[in-house]
């Protein structure tokens, strides 16, 4: 076996003895079977290198047969293999030999792991494009048929994804066969296969002739949409989007709409949820006329559905739905047919519904304009700002910019402030964290004056929060505020307060001072850093807590580049040298690191 | 397949004659706790039979192909794969030991050449893949066949490994671990007919999982009261409908069964149907509630009926009638007078399971003294059989047993007082298409078949 490297085995297959260029390849090949998954994975990822060294013929006759039978491996190895094979055509000798790649991919398309199967199908789709029309019918179509009539449903599910790539390039006789196979998969015994077929129905419809769409796809769609399994029916909703795009308005009304109406009122909430979730796509696919006649009433029902999950999904779509309405008459439709339902949702019993609505409701203001916003939307915003659920309030605050453009934020500030303060002190630290992240935005919109007056103290309070993540976020928040309001503001309002904390009895707070300095020094510039911050940092080098001392070393390393050489040599260097002799190992380490980074040695 | 032919189950009138086929497990009187079988389950085709034990092991038996030279030995079950599914663990946060005992095994419908099953202990559900391997790769570049390293400088050609046939190897590998979703002990798992979800139930909650997603599950039933002192009932078993993907039932310690429709809402706290038999006030006693607790609930294969097992009886319910069961079969009514002593030795809390024959025409459930009971639903006849080594000659017919309740004991009868309550048959399984049953008696697994005429 070993000596089989005959003539014509390609450029990489070197002959003669002692060719050390073979060694790395030999290692790669051996490691295809290493016990360590990571090494196997590495080898598989370099499969093209191996194939190149073997040459096209040995790749076809030896490497691919071996790979075809390696489907016992771990998922991640198989996944990598499936991906590699999609780009292997050149390595087996070009399009004429692309069919050699089908056997290994075929066996990968039957494994139980969905990600691997999907990747194998993706690679097969890629390779199908490299087949000549003759090769496609000779090799690829038979493969699809084999998979489609396989015993195991893993192979049949994989087949579903391959019809659409071979159909357009097949002859008419073969086309009829392909359609026949697809039809039988749509009525397969196992729900797994019917789901796969339903999810590819739209894609397949797109490559079919319009007559076949009407005569074959529509009945399949109708059947799948009334399948006994909820999980199949809900996928038909997705297919509806693609099919609707292919049909004329009349056909749409006659062939698809009855099914879609039925789906919007399905007994199963999961199907109705899917309609709500795909609403924007459906709206675009069916066009404005059917939207007005059919979809808007359906949407109203979804907004008051008995299942909260459905209401939440519909609430998420409110803004997109309104945006996509034809501009003419849009305002009237929204005001008369949508807004009354939204008003109900503001006081929904379920917090997810309210929070979904809060995440999009602000977007309506740009669509409705200033007057309507003030008259109709503002009361809703204010109500949601006072909602008992913090997530609802947070979602309103995080979308303030939409309203700001239309009516200015001042309209809201009276209600905004209590809401912010309450969120800032929420018992859940994740809520506090979220509101901190909106501070720079709020500050920008509210202006310095308002900020100093109402919000500054909150920002400082976060610096001494008992949760580290909050203190950390508060630090970077300060930096962003300085970038917004400028160094002078920093010098007057922030820096003094930060520096005072250096004398706090709690060492965690003293460290916060250092973290703030790390974050602020760059934004504040050389002068403030040298004159105000540096002395404090240097003084803290004598702190009795080692954690503070090594953070001093780290801070010095951080602010060093901002300082001038004099300050570095005369002030920083001696302190770092002293810390370099510290009795604590960590302090020593970070001091020495700072010395070498700042080149003070 | 065996001579009886697919679906051949107890035919009306013709009483089925059961005969011994095999017994698995040690003969020793001295039984190790870890060897006690805790669940038995056939797969969908009946070719594989899985057992779980208190030691956390799963043993899978495979039915041998029909043997031409021995026409009468209808496919015996032999060990196919054995693996350690669960290990004992310790929950450090709650200071609780988590036993490795396998509470339930459920097979998945076969999707490719490999077989998959779910196994669970009190807390963690695992998805196992059982696959075969019959090829081995040979040939390395850097070492010889005998493992000696080659001189890297003397490699003159590249070798691609080639696959050689080898002895069949069966591998069990854990594919998914579904953990951290149950505060209480898991009593049931059940795979949905959509083949992509399953439920797991503990004392107070039922969760819905996707078979491919381990990091989240959806809570679909939660009966935990805000104040645990108000707790009056617990969930004892739960199962999905075999055909309707949206329907599942769960039974409670109060003897009731709730049927929920997942279509109506995401959280199924409100049931669609409530099955309860009105209590007979005349027979009310201290033990009424304990013995009415349902230990197992199983849908018939047709999906029309369900069966529940309580301490003394097994009941068949028509899903269309909530007010009372359509059949009630007494399993061991003679124990009603012994409830006091059964309460004292904790036997009254034993959780007996029950199962349907492949055609739904007969049902089986266990009792004490290694007795198990079969009820033919057509002829209304019932029989008590015994799983014992004494009668374990191949193809020996099982003699019906009788427990005498009156004062005078007839020949061949056994008196209630001499029943051995340590020998209990809790777990049984019936082949989905044939009359082959598996009966777990402590550490032994008995397999019986109908007698072919």
Automatic annotation (TrEMBL), chain A:
Signal peptide: none annotated. It comes from the Eukaryota. Residues 99-282 form the Phosphatase 2A Regulatory Subunit A helical domain. Keywords: Repeat. SUPFAM superfamilies: ARM repeat (SSF48371). GO terms for cellular component: cytosol; nucleus; protein phosphatase type 2A complex. Pfam families: HEAT (PF02985), HEAT_2 (PF13646), PPP2R1A-like_HEAT (PF22646), VPS15-like_hel (PF22956). The keyword Repeat applies. HEAT repeats lie at residues 24-62, 101-139, 178-216, 217-255, 256-294, 295-332, 338-376, 377-415, 416-454, 494-532, 533-571, 572-601. GO terms for molecular function: protein phosphatase regulator activity. Residues 288-369 form the Phosphatase PP2A regulatory subunit A/Splicing factor 3B subunit 1-like HEAT repeat domain. Belongs to the phosphatase 2A regulatory subunit A family. This is Serine/threonine-protein phosphatase 2A 65 kDa regulatory subunit A beta isoform isoform X4.
Automatic annotation (TrEMBL), chain B:
Residues 385-406 are annotated as: Disordered. GO terms for cellular component: protein phosphatase type 2A complex. Keywords: Repeat, WD repeat. GO terms for molecular function: protein phosphatase regulator activity. InterPro entries: PP2A_PR55 (IPR000009), PP2A_PR55_CS (IPR018067), WD40/YVTN_repeat-like_dom_sf (IPR015943), WD40_repeat_dom_sf (IPR036322), WD40_rpt (IPR001680). SUPFAM superfamilies: WD40 repeat-like. Belongs to the phosphatase 2A regulatory subunit B family. This is Serine/threonine-protein phosphatase 2A 55 kDa regulatory subunit B.
């Amino acid at each position: 076996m070993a000596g089989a490297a005959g003539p014509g085995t390609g450029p990489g297959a070197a002959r003669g003895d002692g060719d050390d260029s073979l060694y790395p390849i030999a290692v790669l090949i051996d490691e295809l079977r290493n016990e360590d998954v990571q090494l196997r994975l590495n080898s598989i990822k370099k499969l093209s290198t191996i194939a190149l060294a073997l040459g096209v013929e040995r790749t076809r006759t030896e490497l691919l047969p071996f790979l075809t039978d390696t489907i016992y491996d771990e998922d991640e190895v198989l996944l990598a293999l499936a991906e590699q094979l999609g780009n292997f055509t050149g390595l087996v000798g070009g399009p004429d030999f692309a069919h050699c790649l089908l056997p290994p991919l075929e066996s990968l398309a039957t494994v139980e792991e969905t990600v691997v199967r999907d990747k194998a199908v993706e690679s097969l789709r890629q390779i199908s494009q490299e087949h000549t029309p003759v090769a496609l019918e000779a090799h690829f179509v038979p493969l699809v048929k084999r998979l489609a009539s396989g015993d195991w449903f893993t192979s049949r599910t994989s087949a579903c994804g391959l019809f659409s790539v071979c159909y357009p390039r097949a002859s008419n006789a073969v086309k009829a066969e392909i359609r026949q196979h697809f039809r039988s998969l749509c009525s397969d015994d196992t729900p797994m296969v019917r789901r796969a077929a339903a999810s590819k129905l739209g894609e397949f419809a797109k490559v079919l002739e319009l007559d076949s769409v009407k005569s074959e796809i529509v009945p399949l769609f109708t059947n799948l949409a009334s399948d006994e399994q909820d999980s199949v029916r809900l996928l038909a909703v997705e297919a509806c989007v693609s099919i609707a795009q292919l049909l004329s308005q009349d056909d749409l009304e006659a062939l698809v709409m009855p099914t879609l109406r039925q789906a919007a009122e399905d007994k199963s909430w999961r199907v109705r949820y899917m309609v709500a979730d795909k609403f924007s796509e459906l709206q675009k696919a069916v066009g404005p006329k059917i939207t007005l006649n059919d979809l808007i009433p359906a949407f109203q029902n979804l907004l008051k559905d008995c299942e909260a999950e459905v209401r939440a999904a519909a609430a998420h779509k409110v803004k997109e739905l309104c945006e996509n309405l034809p501009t003419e008459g849009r305002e009237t439709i929204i005001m008369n047919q949508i807004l009354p339902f939204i008003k109900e949702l503001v006081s929904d019993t379920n917090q997810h519904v309210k929070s979904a609505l809060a995440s999009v409701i602000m977007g309506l203001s740009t669509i409705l304009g200033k007057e309507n916003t003030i008259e109709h939307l503002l009361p809703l915003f204010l109500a949601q700002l006072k909602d008992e659920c913090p997530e609802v309030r947070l979602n309103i605050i995080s979308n303030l910019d939409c309203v700001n453009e239309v009516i200015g934020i001042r309209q809201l500030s009276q209600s905004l402030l209590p809401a912010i303060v309450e969120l800032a002190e929420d018992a859940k630290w994740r809520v506090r964290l979220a509101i901190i992240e909106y501070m720079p935005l709020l500050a920008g919109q509210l202006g310095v004056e308002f900020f100093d007056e109402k919000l500054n103290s909150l920002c400082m309070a976060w610096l001494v929060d008992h949760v580290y993540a909050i203190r950390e976020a508060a630090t970077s928040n300060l930096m962003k505020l300085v970038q917004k309001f400028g160094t002078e503001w920093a010098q007057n309002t922030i820096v003094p307060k930060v520096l005072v904390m250096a004398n706090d009895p709690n060492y965690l707070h003293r460290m916060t001072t250092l973290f703030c300095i790390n974050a602020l020094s760059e934004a504040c510039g050389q002068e403030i850093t040298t004159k105000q911050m540096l002395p404090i940092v240097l003084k803290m080098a004598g702190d009795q807590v080692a954690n503070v001392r090594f953070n001093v070393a780290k801070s010095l390393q951080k602010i060093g580049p901002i300082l001038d050489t004099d300050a570095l040599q005369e002030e920083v260097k001696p302190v770092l040298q002293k810390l370099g002799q510290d009795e604590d190992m960590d302090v020593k380490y970070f001091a020495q690191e700072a010395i070498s980074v700042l080149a003070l040695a | 397949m065996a001579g009886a032919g697919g679906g051949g189950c107890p035919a009306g009138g013709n009483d089925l004659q059961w005969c011994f086929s095999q017994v698995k497990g040690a003969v020793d009187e001295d039984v190790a706790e870890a060897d006690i079988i805790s669940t038995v389950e056939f797969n969908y085709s009946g070719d594989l039979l899985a057992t779980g034990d208190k030691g956390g092991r799963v043993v899978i038996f495979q039915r041998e192909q029909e043997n031409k030279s021995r026409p009468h030995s209808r496919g015996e079950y032999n060990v196919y794969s054995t693996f350690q599914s669960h290990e004992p663990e310790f929950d450090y946060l709650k200071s609780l030991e988590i036993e490795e005992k396998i509470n339930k095994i459920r097979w998945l419908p076969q999707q490719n050449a490999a077989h998959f099953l779910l196994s669970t202990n009190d807390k963690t559900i695992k998805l196992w893949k059982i696959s075969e391997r019959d090829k081995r790769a040979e040939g390395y570049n850097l070492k010889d066949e005998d493992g000696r390293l080659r001189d890297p400088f003397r490699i003159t050609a590249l070798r691609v490994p080639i696959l050689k046939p080898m002895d069949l190897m069966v591998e069990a590998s854990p594919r998914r671990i579904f953990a951290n979703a149950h505060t209480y002990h898991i009593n049931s798992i059940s795979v949905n007919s959509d083949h992509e979800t399953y439920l797991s139930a503990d004392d107070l909650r039922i969760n819905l999982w996707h078979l491919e997603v381990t990091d989240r599950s959806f809570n679909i039933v939660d009966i935990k009261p805000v104040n645990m002192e108000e707790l009056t009932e617990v969930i004892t078993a739960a199962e999905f409908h075999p055909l309707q993907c949206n329907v599942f039932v769960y039974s409670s310690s109060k003897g009731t069964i709730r049927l929920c429709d997942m279509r109506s809402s995401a959280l199924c706290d409100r049931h669609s149907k409530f099955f309860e038999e009105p209590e007979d006030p005349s027979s009310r006693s201290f033990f009424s509630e304990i013995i009415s607790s349902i230990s197992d609930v199983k849908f018939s294969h047709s999906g029309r009926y369900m069966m529940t097992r309580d301490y003394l009886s097994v009941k068949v319910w028509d899903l269309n009638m909530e007010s009372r069961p359509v059949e009630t079969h007494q399993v061991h009514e003679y124990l009603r007078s012994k409830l006091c002593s059964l309460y004292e030795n904790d036997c009254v809390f034993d959780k007996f399971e029950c199962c349907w024959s492949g055609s739904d025409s007969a049902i089986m459930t266990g009792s004490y003294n290694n007795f198990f009971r079969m009820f033919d639903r057509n002829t209304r006849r019932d029989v008590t059989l015994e799983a014992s080594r004494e009668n374990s000659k191949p193809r020996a017919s099982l003699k019906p047993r009788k427990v005498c309740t009156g004062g005078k004991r007839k020949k061949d009868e056994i008196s209630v007082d001499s029943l051995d309550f340590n020998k209990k048959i809790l777990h049984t399984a019936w082949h989905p298409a044939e009359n082959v049953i598996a009966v777990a008696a402590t550490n032994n697994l008995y397999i019986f078949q109908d007698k072919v005429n």
